[in-house]
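[Amino acid chain]
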Amino acid sequence: MSGAGVPSRLDSLPLTRLHLAAAALCAAGMFVDVAELALSVAFSAIFSAPPHSLDATQLGMLLASVFVGGAIGSPLFGWLADRHGRRLALQLSLLLVAAPSLGAAFSPDANWLIFFRLLSGMALGAYPPLMSAFLADIMPPKRRAPIMLTAVSIGLLGAPLVALLVWWLTPLAPLGIEGWRWALIGMGAMAGMLAPAFVLLPESPRWLAARGRADEADRACRRFEAAAGIASPPVVSELAAAAASTPPIRGFGAHWPNVVLIAALYLMRPWATVGFPVIAGAVLIAKSYRLDQSLASVGIGGFGAALGALLAATVVDRLPRRTSLAICSLALMGAGLLFAIGNDLMVLVLAMAAFNFLAAIYGPLLSIYAAEIFPTGIRASATATAWSANRIGSALAPLALLPLLQFYGPVLVLATIAATLLVNLILIAAFGPRGLAGQPLMA
């Protein structure tokens, strides 16, 4: 029937080429998102060394600007996704990355660079929760988390690859343009090309059904059924289907406790998963390594993130989400403290790789956990609203950690990061629901 039973029809499907195409396109967008954000890691080293050598306050503002923009843009895009569609919100978020990235690439000074990074952040900050909501909506329950983590692992390659790109281009400066400027040009162009490709994908049938757009939900669902080679049920009138469709959408209501919990976890998360990579280059400079060594080390260490997410995809549903998140928090504390006390470059690179490996499990798993505990009608807005706390934490982390690094050294910085992970662990253990590993989503 048109619209009626769309969630159960989607949940009964096998994984199809259409599912994989959606995941691949989302992964490409995630690559841009991660690469753009990871430029802050390169900036922490580039603008800590001559000829730039920004003071701690201005450098902190530069690194924080993209995250301040995310705190503003994320709730707006979440509202857009729940009111007007996941696909449209994803397209607009990528389109709104392109122009500010080009503006940042040609910034004449640090103030203009901060301004354009702020604008880019408004779109970049929204992409991860939008992608999680869209993929959670359409994926079969047993394949939901593995496919989402695989998409994230591909996207996370953006961090090491953009760092290595900047490292390679910095001494070359093609056409007299600095390496980090070329990276911004490339990412802006890629975002502009990816956005129109989302037109080729169907809108989330689950979201369409939740909005009462029964016939559209049925047509979108039939595309997935056709991709699976499964006959769709007969069509009935939209009026009859709507009567049997998903219950009407309500606001956050009883879900506020979970919104607050996820917001708190997102607020703490960046001190480790963003704060550590952002200050890693500056820590290496403080440990007396050269700029080229620091950029190369950050780039190599970043490959641990993609590997972590990819390996986690094979085992993600074997433990409750809450248990997996708690284990990751403990392991991250150990890797961060090893980086703080180590001095040998090989030990530091291995510690960075281990930290990024674990962060790449923890971060995407938390996003999947968040997407699973909210019903379809508020999934994007609830997770994006909570995600704005992540952007706030991401903005605060470099502003607080860089002065700590400058005046007190790396040990206190990494101890601060470890303390935030401990708070995360307590919140998860005390208040976190188990999650829906391998189970159907709420309507």
The longest helix spans residues 17-46. The chain has a mean pLDDT of 79.
